[in-house]
Prior knowledge:
Layout: H1 3-10, E1 16-17, H2 23-33, E2 37-41, E3 47-52, H3 53-63, E4 83-84, H4 89-99, E5 103-108, E6 111-117, H5 118-142
Parallel strand pairs: 1-2, 4-5
Antiparallel strand pairs: 2-3, 5-6
Helix pairs in contact: 4-5
Amino acid sequence: MLINQLLNAKGHQVFTVSPDDTVAAVSALLHTRKVGAFVVSDSLGRVVGIVSERDIIGALARVGARSLDMRTEEIMTKDVIVARLGQTVDSLLELMTDRRIRHLPVMEGQKLTGIISIGDLVKSKIAQAEHEAQTLKAYIAAG
């Protein structure tokens, strides 16, 4: 399955935050939205980073409670690895597993078009396996 197919089923909504937002504000939004990461975009809408629960925990471990007053750009992951619409679920599962990444922004050229999580990919693989099993059962039953 291609990522564009997965996004068409899941939806293209992406929550973004500003590099100037405080870590406390981003933490509250992560909790409210029930997501694990936000894409960080500048005033022109360009992707400049990604901030995840892991980034926040790391800042808390290094700096302590003062990290909550820091700006997101101070703790975000700046070297963002992205997915493209034509990539496969399998290739991204491998990439995310190898790099220990849980969230990937999906880009179409320079435009942010979605975000996928490792959970989205695993859910897709389970659905594919269930479909294949049902198809085989139907084939065997008909034979």
